[in-house]
Amino acid sequence: LNDELSKLEGEYTHIIIDNQPLIGGLLTTQALAASTDLVIPVTADVFSLQGLERLQQAITSIRRRVNPDLTVAGLLLNKLNPRHNLSGGLVQSIAKWAEVNDTKIFETYIRESVSIREAQTLRESIFAYAPHSNPALDLMNFLQREYLPNQEGS
Length: 154
Prior knowledge:
Elements: H1 2-6, H2 26-34, E1 37-43, H3 46-65, E2 71-78, H4 85-100, H5 114-121, H6 126-129, H7 134-147
Parallel strand pairs: 1-2
């Protein structure tokens, strides 16, 4: 992956690698090895909280072995429904994890919507499937207002 990305050097200011959340898988490992910074999408559920610990171990290993420059830009709350009582408690647990691991939580969050599940079922991006949906608008807001302006070269 690093070799292929190096061919694109100078053509883009940013390349976003979006892969499935398989910690320890070959594609995830290659993506972490090739990346400069990492946005971690996290849902307000127990499994995401458990996955954060395993991901932190993987990041530490990647930094030690192949990519000492890998940084965690922050956590992006995903599929969030602030009206659910359970979400609030889990968001607090995620915030506590972020504080302990010196990681910020982005202000923007991606709202829960059926359009995300439909797009995934059809194997389409949310921008192709439902470009005016709340999740698509939330993601564009995150990229344009919160994430990209804070990156070098933006």
